[in-house]
Amino acid sequence: MLSPKISIKLSIFFTGFAGIVAEYLLSTLASYLLGDSIFQWTMTISIMLLAMGVGARFSKYIKDPMLFNALIYTEISISLLVSFSVYIAYLQAPYESRMTYTIYSLCFLIGFLIGLEIPLAVRINELFEELKENISTILEKDYLGALPGGILYGYFFLPKLGLLYTPVLVGSLNLMVAGLLLFSFPKRVKKHMIFLYLGTICCIAFFTFFAKPIYLYLEQRFYRDPIVEIKQTKYQKIVITKWRNDYLLYLDGHLQLNTVDEKRYHETIVHIPMSLVNAQNILVIGGGDGCVVRELLKYPYVKNIFLVDLDKEFVNFSMQNKIMRKINQNSLLNKKVKLFFQDGFNFVKDFKKNIKSDIDLVIVDLPDPRNIRSSRLYSLEFYKIIYRVLSENGVIITQATTPFFAKKAFCCILNTIKSAHFYAYPLIINVPSFGEWGFVIGLKSFLSKSSVQKSVYRNLNENYTKFLTKGLAASFFETPKDLVCNGVKINTLVNPVILKYYDDSFWDLL
After folding, report:
1. Domain of 70?
2. pLDDT of residue 510
3. Which of 189, 219, 249 is the last residue of a domain?
4. Residue 273 falls within a domain, yes or no?
5. Active site (annotated) includes residue 365
6. Catalytic position from the list 142, 289, 309, 365
7. Considering only 2-16, 195-209, 423-437, 463-477, which range has the smallest mean pLDDT?
8. pLDDT per residue over 369-405, tens digit each?
9. Which among 84, 98, 421, 438 could disulfide-bond with 400, CB atoms 3.0 to 4.6 Å apart, if both were Cys?
C-alpha cells in the first residue's frame, strides 16, 4: 500500500498531466467547431486560467474536516465533465451561439475544478510536511505533470485517439486519482464515496464502449450528406461524405473538394500554367489529396514532381484510402513524385538543401489563410523565395480564395505576388460547390495579358482536360470591372493583414 504522502504527490502529478491535456483538448474542440484557431486557443486557455483563479479562491471556504471529501468530489466531477465535454458541445451543433456558450462554460467549469485541486492538496499535505516543503513539492509535481501531458497530447493523444477517446482517457486519469486517494486514506472513506466512485467507473466504461457510434452520430450533425470516412491526424480532421455517386472531402469542417466539380479547380490550377511553360520539374506546395499531381502526370515530359505537405498522415490517407485513390487515380504512388513532409515555408527557405534541380513551375494548392501558420504561405517573404527558386522563365500559380466573398483577401494575394517582382494576373472561374473562385498566376518574364491569353489558347492541350477548353481558359483572365485592388495592403510575416481581410470580407458577406 502506498503511503498517504506519496499518494498525494502522485495525485498532483497526474492532475497536472490531465489538466494541461484538458486545456489543449477544449482549445482544439473550440478551434474545430468555432473556427479561428488562434482566437479560440487564446479564449479557452484564458477562460480556464481565470476559472482556476476563481476555484483557488473558492477553496478557502472549504473547512478542514471536508478537505478530503471535497478533493474526491472534485476529481470525480472533472472526470465526468472532461469525458463528456466533446459530446456536450456537439449536441449544440445546429446552434452556433449555443455551441460557443457551451464550450466556454465547459472551460470555466473544468478550470474552476482544476483550480480547487492544488489548494486542497496543499492543505491535506500539511499533515505530512511543513509549509516550505509542502508548497514546493506540490507545485513541482503539478508542473512536472504538465510537460509529458503536452508532449503526449500533440504526438499521440490527438493524432491517434482523436476527439473520440482522448476526453475519456483524460477523464479516466482524474478518476484514477480519486481511486488512489480513496485507497490511501481508508479511514476517511465513507460508503457513499465508494458507490459514487464505482458508479462513475461504470458510467465512463459504458460510454467508452459506445463512444464511436455516439461520436459518429454527433459528427454527422455537421454534414448534410452521410459520412463514409473520418480520420484525425496530428494537424487536422479528415471527413469524407457521399452524395449519390460523388464524394466530398472536408478538412477541419471546411469543404476542400467535391468530385462533382473538382476538375474545374484542378484543371485550372494545372493546365493553364502548363500552357505557359514546358515544366519538367514542378514543386507542389500542399495538394495532399493528390489531384494536382493527377493532372500533372498527364504530361509525358514532366520529369519530377516535388510535393511538400505538412501532414504526412493526410498524404498517406490519400495514397491508401480506396476513395481517395479513386479520386486521385493513384497519382501519389507514381515514381515521378517525390514526397516531403514539412512546412512549405521552411522547405522553400532551405530549398537548395532539399532539391538540386531548378524548378519551372510552383503550384500552391493550400487551404485559405485562416490562421497565422497558413498566412505565412501567402506572404511577401514566401513569394520572394519562390521567385529565387524558379528558373528564368518560371511560373507560379496559387489558389487565392473567393474574389466575391473575400475580395480584399484576394486582392491582398495579387498585390503581394506583384510586390515580389512577379508579373501577376488574376484568374476567376466558377466552381459550383464554392461559387466564384480565384487564382493568381505570376511570371518571371514579362508577357502582356493579351499575350498570356494567346499563349494559353495556343498551347492548352484539350486532350488532357474534361472541363477546360482553349477559349474558356483564355477567358478566365478577363476580370469584372468592379474588381479593383487599389489600397489593399500586402501580406508580410510581421504584418499578416490577410487574416483580417479574409475574416472581415468573407464573414461579412457570406
Report:
1. 4-219
2. 42
3. 219
4. yes
5. yes
6. 365
7. 2-16
8. 888 888 999 999 999 999 999 999 999 999 999 998 9
9. 438
